[in-house]
Write a structure and sequence with these properties.
Number of helices: 7
Strand order of the largest sheet: 1-2
Number of domains: 1
Helix content: 55-70%
Largest sheet: 2 strands, antiparallel
Number of strands: 2
CATH superfamily: dinb family like domain
Distance between the termini: 22 Å
CATH topology: Four Helix Bundle (Hemerythrin (Met), subunit A)
CATH architecture: Up-down Bundle
Shape: globular
Order of helices and strands: HHHHHEEHH
Strand content: 5-15%
CATH class: Mainly Alpha
Oligomer: single chain
Length: 169
C-alpha cells in the first residue's frame, strides 16, 4: 500500500505548528510571570551565526506552506517577515495553518514523481515529490521547530517533550 503524500505532510505540519503556537503561548506567559520582555525572547540565538527565534518561527511556517505549494501547484501566500511580537508570530502560524488546511488532498496525493527544484545562491537541489518531502521538507521543518523549542527552553520557558510533540490528532 502506498503512503499518501498528504498524510505525510498536512497532519504532521498541522500538529507541529499547533504545538509551536502553544509553546509561544507558554513563552508569553513565562515572560509575564518573570517580568521579562517577550520581545527579548524573539532575539535569542543558539549561537551568533544562527537565526534568532523570530526567524526560526518564520521559517517553520514557510516550510509547510512552500512544501504544499510545490507539491500541489497552488500558489503560497507571501509573508514579509516583519513580525516583531509573539502575537504577530501567532498570526503567522494561524495563517499558515489556514493555508495548508485549504490545499486539497487530491492536489497533493499522487505527486510522488513531481519535479521539485530548490534554488539556492550556490546552486540547485532537484528532487522528486516524495524525496523532497522525506529528504528535505520534513527534516528542514523539524530543524527549525526543534531550534525554536531549544531557544525557548534555554530561556527558562517551562517546556517539555509533550509540548514539542503537541496534542495527538
Amino acid at each position: 500500500m502506498a503512503t499518501e503524500l498528504y498524510d505525510l505532510t498536512v497532519p504532521i505540519f498541522t500538529r507541529s505548528l499547533k504545538a509551536l503556537s502553544a509553546m509561544l503561548d507558554k513563552a508569553a506567559a513565562h515572560a509575564a510571570e518573570t517580568g521579562d520582555r517577550p520581545e527579548a525572547l524573539l532575539a535569542r540565538r543558539l549561537i551568533d551565526d544562527m537565526h534568532p527565534l523570530v526567524k526560526q518561527v518564520q521559517i517553520a511556517c514557510d516550510g509547510p506552506k512552500l512544501c504544499l505549494a510545490r507539491l500541489s501547484g497552488v500558489e503560497a501566500p507571501v509573508n514579509e517577515d516583519t513580525e516583531t511580537t509573539i502575537a504577530e508570530l501567532q498570526a503567522r502560524i494561524a495563517s499558515t495553518l489556514d493555508f495548508i488546511g485549504s490545499v486539497p488532498r487530491d492536489a497533493v496525493d499522487g505527486q510522488e514523481d513531481r519535479d521539485v527544484v530548490l534554488k539556492f545562491p550556490g546552486g540547485e537541489w532537484p528532487f522528486k515529490g516524495q524525496g523532497y518531502v522525506i529528504g528535505f521538507a520534513l527534516p528542514n521543518f523539524f530543524f527549525h521547530l526543534t531550534t525554536a523549542y531549544g531557544l525557548l527552553r534555554g530561556a527558562g520557558v517551562p517546556l517539555g517533550k509533550r509540548d514539542f510533540l503537541g496534542a495527538p490528532a
